[in-house]
Every structure is written in structure tokens, then in C-alpha cells.
Design brief:
Blueprint lengths: L3 E4 L5 H8 L3 E4 L21 E5 L11 H20 L5 E4 L9 H14 L6 E4 L12 H10 L6 E5 H6 L7 H9 L4 E3 L2 E2 L10 E2 L8 H11 L3 E3 L6 H11 L1
Parallel strand pairs: 1-2, 1-10, 2-3, 3-4, 4-5, 5-6, 6-7, 7-10
Antiparallel strand pairs: 8-9
Helix pairs in contact: 3-4, 4-6
């Protein structure tokens, strides 16, 4: 049986995990929309495996120095802080370049991250739902990103909502992702409030969105990786129970 858990508030992750009967937890180490450095939880996180999600503002792909350089610094800070907590991995979005930029610039900038930074724990790049010039929305772009990162030990986080909203069919997405990356380290198991290829990153509790629940279960089975639900908090315990019953 794969381990199943949830993204929770960072004030007391262990207590939130217990309330949801979660075996693993994911949380932020600060404001996900801010540039301040990571802050450890006030209370120790014991009895569960930990994943840390990097702030959304990080965009190491961009050609804009005023964003790329602080993004690299913030990513490095979170990587070290996550390692200190014993986290299994640090999840970071693939980022994007400007609409008129050559996407190869973004792939090259990602490579520079790993050329210049030590990774005490795995960095798990997550597929994203939107963005016309995103690095990790479409699998063809993810393939180019992985080509650029050849030789580095980089992990992958597959988000079901993002894949659906990003225009990638879920029926065979695990097979297609693994053909590119060779691995799926974590599944973000989320339903989608919006339609296929909408580009909208809005999660719904399982069975309450636009994705067939059987398709979500099939993705989880095929991936055979730990599962995190990033659904609205009020329904997370039910989402975890649903997955545990049906997987």
C-alpha cells in the first residue's frame, strides 16, 4: 500500500496529519507568495513523513535577473531547511519564461541551478496547469527540460489537476511521464474545478470536480508513488479515506 497524506497548514503539521489519518504531510515553510526565507514549524513534526513545497514565487527559468537570481537563492534556502527537517523532497513548480522568450533559455537556466547548487534531498519538479510559455505544462516541454537536466538526479511530482487543466490526457499520463523522466516520486492527487485544457489551477475534493474519480485512481495505481491530496481542507479526511478504500 502506498503512503497517503495531505498538504496541511504549517503551524502543527503532525496534529493536522493525525486529524486526517494521514501517513505523510506536505507544507510550506513560510508565505508561499512571499520572498522571505524559510521558517521551521513551531512544533516538531514526528510520526509522519515530510515533504516541503517551495514558494510559488520561485521561477528559476525566467530570463529576468531580478526574479531568477532571488529565486535560486530562495530555492537553495528551502532545500537546506527541508533537509534539516528530514523531508523526503522539495517540490517546486517548473516556472516559465516571457511570452516572447525562447523556451530554451528557461531549460538552460534550470540546468544552471543544478550546476551551481548542492541537493541534500531530491528536488521534485512539478507539472503546472497554465502558462503559454511554461517549462512543465506540456509533456513535450517536460521532455526538453529533462534533456537539459541530463546527468542530474532530479525527481518528478505529477499533479492530476494540473495535467487535466494543462491539456494532458490522464488515461496514459503516467506511462508518458515515465518514458520521459524515468520516475514519478510523488503524486499530487487533486480533482479539478475546471475543464480539460482550461489552464486553471483550481483544485477540488475528489469526486467534486471535472475529473472522473476512476481515472484519478488509475493514475495513482500506475504511478505507485506516495500520494498527497492538496484539496480543500474540509474534505481532505474523506479524500484520504476514499483513496485508502479504493487503492
Amino acid at each position: 500500500m502506498v503512503r497517503i497524506g495531505a498538504h496541511v497548514d504549517q503551524d502543527d503539521p503532525a496534529a493536522h496529519a493525525a486529524a486526517r489519518e494521514a501517513e505523510i504531510v506536505q507544507f510550506f515553510l513560510g508565505d508561499p507568495q512571499g520572498w522571505k526565507g524559510p521558517v521551521a514549524p513551531d512544533k516538531p513534526v514526528e510520526g509522519v513523513e515530510i515533504y516541503i513545497h517551495a514558494p510559488y514565487v520561485i521561477n528559476v527559468a525566467t530570463a529576468n535577473n531580478r526574479i531568477r537570481i532571488p529565486s535560486r537563492k530562495l530555492l537553495d534556502q528551502h532545500l537546506r531547511a527541508a533537509a534539516d527537517l528530514g523531508a523526503k523532497g522539495l517540490i517546486v513548480h517548473g516556472g516559465h519564461v516571457g511570452k516572447d522568450d525562447d523556451p530554451q533559455v528557461g531549460f538552460d537556466n534550470w540546468r544552471k541551478v543544478f550546476e551551481r547548487m548542492e541537493s541534500p534531498i531530491p528536488v521534485l519538479i512539478e507539472n503546472t496547469a497554465g502558462g503559454g510559455n511554461a517549462m512543465a505544462r506540456k509533456l513535450e516541454r517536460i521532455a526538453r527540460l529533462w534533456d537539459a537536466l541530463d546527468g542530474f538526479d532530479v525527481g518528478f511530482c505529477l499533479d492530476t489537476c494540473h495535467a487535466h487543466a494543462g491539456g494532458e490526457e490522464l488515461v496514459d499520463v503516467v506511462e508518458r511521464v515515465k518514458a520521459i523522466t524515468g520516475r514519478i516520486d510523488l503524486v499530487h492527487c487533486n480533482d479539478s474545478r475546471d475543464a480539460f485544457d482550461s489552464g486553471a489551477d483550481r483544485h477540488a475534493n475528489l469526486g467534486q470536480g471535472q475529473i472522473d474519480s476512476e481515472l484519478i485512481l488509475a493514475v495513482c495505481r500506475a504511478a505507485a508513488a506516495p500520494i498527497i491530496v492538496e484539496t480543500p481542507f474540509a474534505g481532505q479526511a474523506d479524500d484520504i479515506a476514499f483513496l485508502r478504500k479504493n487503492l
